[in-house]
Amino acid sequence: MPPDALALSGLTVRHGGVLAVDRLDLRIGRGETVALLGPNGAGKSSTVSAVLGLLRPHAGTVEVLGRAPGDAVRAGCVGAMLQHGGLPGEARVGEVLHLVRCSYADPWPLDDLVATTGIGGLLGRDVDALSGGQRQRVLLALALAGQPPLLLLDEPTSAMDVEGRRAFWTTMRDLADRGTTVVFATHHLHEADAVADRVVVMAAGRVVADGPSAAVRSAVAGRTVRFTAPGAATFDRVPGVTGATRLGGTVALATTDVEATLRALLADGVALADLEVRGASLEDAVLSLVGGAR
Ligand SMILES: Nc1ncnc2c1ncn2[C@@H]1O[C@H](COP(=O)(O)OP(=O)(O)OP(=O)(O)O)[C@@H](O)[C@H]1O
């Protein structure tokens, strides 16, 4: 059987006195699309850096496609887009792309790479003159230049506009459909929800949840009941309600028992105009999981 894309065992990363990753065990199979989630400082970037061999773990092991991280990177098996990824200065985008493609034995065909990453209009531009979102698209093209089987992306869409993000994730889904393993750290939870087969939630250097997004969401009890109610009536004492907020005429009630809450509201004669009941979002789930890990 071919080795997993990633196999981390007991990975521990320290930055001086700071414990960034704490005995992390994680396996990611080939072809999976995995979102690494968690608050600032959870250890996501440190994990990515260890996988790329950019820092030496304090303890534990890292295998990338069955190899040591440095070997996998040197063999062109890993494409990466890092949070603070640099581009050489005083060069044009096309020149940098050419140089990087030349370093691979079997580079991604240029026209297709340029079209896939949407950088056709940028090839003649100075890299120093790119906007944040354009820079991220160029970094993606460089990460893909060697057609790597594994892509590691650290907050890849942080500077992109809505359209750029949508195009980016469409590209990622296409890559995943072609069998590329995609691992990305993000704070855009709705994107993780839409794109990833699996989400791994980290807090304080450890995994606090791991599974399909729907499973992680369902781990959090509770629903939100939302309706329009003019006036200043309060609803925090309604059965099941654990939290009530009002914004103008819109009332949102967090409840652990939707039926009891709705029955009580109807019995009180509340009209429940524009009624909406929804389950926990991935954001609710992550907040709850991370809160519990603190
Ligand atoms: N070079 C460094 N020197 C000292 N401490 C560091 C360094 N890099 C990271 N840390 C610390 O390690 C911990 C984990 O940081 P890391 O960047 O891995 O988290 P993260 O989950 O990627 O956060 P973010 O979402 O903010 O990017 C944090 O407490 C951070 O302050």
TrEMBL record:
Gene3D superfamilies in alphabetical order: P-loop containing nucleotide triphosphate hydrolases (3.40.50.300)
PANTHER family: ABC TRANSPORTER ATP-BINDING PROTEIN
Membrane-protein topology: Peripheral membrane protein
Main location per the UniProt record: membrane
Organism: Geodermatophilus africanus
Alphabetical GO biological process terms: response to antibiotic
Keywords annotated in UniProt: Antibiotic resistance, ATP-binding, Nucleotide-binding, Transport
Compartments it resides in: Cell membrane
One Gene Ontology term, aspect cellular component: plasma membrane
A Pfam family hit: ABC_tran
Domain ABC transporter: residue ranges: 6-229
InterPro entries, alphabetized: AAA+_ATPase, ABC_transporter-like_ATP-bd, ABC_transporter-like_CS, ABC_transporter_ATP-binding, P-loop_NTPase
Protein name: ABC-2 type transport system ATP-binding protein
GO terms assigned for molecular function: ATP binding; ATP hydrolysis activity
Species lineage: Bacteria, Bacillati, Actinomycetota, Actinomycetes, Geodermatophilales
